[in-house]
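Incident review: delayed structure delivery

Summary: a single-chain prediction request sat in the queue longer than the usual turnaround. Root cause was a stuck worker, restarted by the on-call engineer. No data loss occurred. The affected request and its eventual output are reproduced below so the record is complete for anyone auditing the incident later.

Affected input:
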Amino acid sequence: MRWVNRGLARPVAAAAFVAGLTPNAVTALSASSSLAGLAGLLFLPRSIAAGVLVALLLALGFVLDSADGQLARLRGGGSGAGEWLDHVVDAARTCLVHLSVTVALLLSGASLAWAVVGLAFCTIAVTQFFSQMWSQIHQPFVKATLEWQTV
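Output delivered after worker restart:
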């Protein structure tokens, strides 16, 4: 998905640059689009049109999520606060997507067993996200430790 989002995000980042948007504004648009899609999933009547709208809003949220970083690089670099905001939105979206799908299934009359599946997916996604962030933060320490052990 990352490769798709990055390609689609390039023209979005360029348009945001021309429009004078900040990376944090694009992050806010990403979060808003994703939340609107998830709200649609939970509250719109079940229909093909609603499904298409939800899918488009979620896809837009993911494309904007990639565009915010590209815009930051295009503007000459981002900030620590912007990176933090991006990660917070990513972490929240990761949980909310799985939990919203689970709730939507339950509202549609699915078995309670689907709640276990949704919670498992949420747990796996959050754990993977945390481990990725931890790895990026601690990579210099881990690399130095591994180099020391091979001496």
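Verification: The chain has one domain: 2-149.
Action items: add queue-age alerting; document worker restart procedure.
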